[in-house]
Task: structure prediction
Amino acid sequence: MKPVLSTEEVVRLEDIIERAGTSKAELMEFAGEFVAQEVEKLHPKRVLILTGFGNNGGDGWVAADLLKQKGIEVAVVSPVEPDEIPASLARHVARRTAGREVTVHVGPSCDELAALVEVSDVVVDAILGTGFHGALRAPFSIWVKTINELGPVVVSVDTPSGLDAQTGKVEDACIHADRTVTMLAPKIGLYSGDGPEYVGELVCGELYDKLDEVIGDVDHAAEIVEPEDIIDFLQHLPASVNKYSRGSVLVVAGSAQYPGAAIMAAKAAARAGAGYVAVATPEPCANLIRMALPSVPVFGIPSDSRGTFGAAARTAVNELAQKYSCVLCGPGMGVSAGSMDVVMGLLELNVPLVLDADALNCLAKVSIGGIDATPDLYRREAPLILTPHHRELSRLVAGDDVNDLLSAIEAAQKIVWACGSDNLVVVAKGPTTAIVGVEKVLLPMAGPASLATAGSGDVLAGIIAGTVALNVKQVELWELLCAYAVAIHSYTGFAAAERFGEKSVIATDLIDFIGPAMQLAADEALRSMGLIDSEGA
Result:
C-alpha cells in the first residue's frame, strides 16, 4: 500500500528528511530531475515551463536546466525577473538556469503567452504547489485560462495549479493536466473533490532513497491499495471445499416497492463467492424474489400494510440470522418502524453484519445528534461494516456536509473513533471510495462513471457480504477485505462499460461481470508482481 498525505504531513516529512541529512535544496534538485525525466518520455522538441513565485516554480527551473542540457529547446515563463523571486531556493535555481542560455519570458501578455504555447510540444505547469488555496490571482488566472483554452499537452508539477492539494477544491479555474508529477507521496486533494477531474495520469517521484524508512514517522491521510495487496483474496478454492465451508449470507432486504434491491444484492453475494445465500424479505414480495432467484431460499417475513417489515419481523429475522456466516441488511427495505426494529435487533447479534442503504437510514433515524454521539447503538463484538454514500453518511453524523472524499473521511472517522472497535469499518462510497477503520484509511481502485447508476450500491453490498462469508475465518484486516470488494466492484464497472458502453451500463450488468472482474484483478496483481507479462503469459 502506498501512503497518501495531507499537505501538513508533507511538510513534516520534508522536515524529517532534512534532519536525516538531505536538504530541501537537494530535494528540489531531485524533483526537477524527476519532472525532466517525465517530460522527456513524451519526446518533445520544444518545452514551455510556467513558473510561479515559490518552490514549485523552483522545480520547474531545475527541470528547464536539465532539459536544455539534453538538447531540448526550452523556454521559461516567470511572473518576475529571476532575481526578484521571493522564495530563496527558487531564486537561486532560477538565477542559475537563466545564466545557462535558457530563454526566459517575464510577465508575457496573453497573446505572447498563447504564441509560446502554440509552438511548444509540452507545457510544464510549475506555477502553484501544495501551499495554494483559494482563488487564482493575476497573472496566474490569465495563464491558466490561456493554457486551458489552447489545450496543449500539460505536465503539472506536484498538483495542477488552481487545485487545493488538501481539499481537492477548485474555486474558479485550474489547469487541466494530462499528467501530474507529484513528489514524495500523492496528496489527498488529488483524489478528493474536483481533483480527479484535473489531475490526469498521476505519477509519483519518491526522490529520497530512504523514503520507506521515514514515511512511517508521519501520519498518513490514507493509503492507496495496490493490486498485489489484495492477492490473498484471489486465491483458488481448495479441492475440499463445499457450499457450507464457503460461507453463507442472509440478505435482509426488499419491500413491496423495491424487491429488485434484494434480488441484486443476493445474486451479487453468490457471485462474490458465498456458498449459500438466502433472502429474508417482507411476505408481499417473497414470491417475486423466489421466481427471480430459483437457487436462493427466500423466507417471507411478517410485513406491515405498506409491504415493508412489520412489527413481528425482528424476532423472525433474528432467529434466521444466527445461522449464517454474514448478514447483509438494508437494500430496498424502506424506513419504517418495523425496519428500524429489525436493524436494532441485528446489531445485538454476534454475527458479522453489513448495513447498507435503508438500514443506514434506519440507524440515523433512531439516533439523536448523529450515531457518533450515541456509539452504544452500534458498538458490538462482531464485525460491523457500514456502506454509506455521501448523503447517507451526512445523515449518520447528523447533517455534516459530506460532499467529497475529504469530508467523507472526516465524517466516517467520527463514527469509527466514537465506537473505537477494530471490527468496525465504514465504506464511504463516492467517485473515490474510502475504507475507514480506527487506524487506517484505504483507497482502493476507483471505478468508472458507469457505476453511477441505480442499484450499483446494492451490488457492492452483495459483493462485500459474499466476500465476508467466504473469508470470515481468516480475516486479519477488515479494511483490506472491504477494499478488495470495492476493487472488484470497480473492475465490474470497467468490464461492463467495455461491453455495453459507459452510458448504457445498468446495475444488473455488473453482477454478470463479477467473475471476470476477479480474473482481471488477479491478472493485474500478478502483473504488478512481475509474475506475468502484459500479454498475460
Notes: The CA atoms of residues 2 and 78 lie 34 Å apart. The chain has a mean pLDDT of 95. The longest helix spans residues 478-500. The longest strand covers residues 276-282.
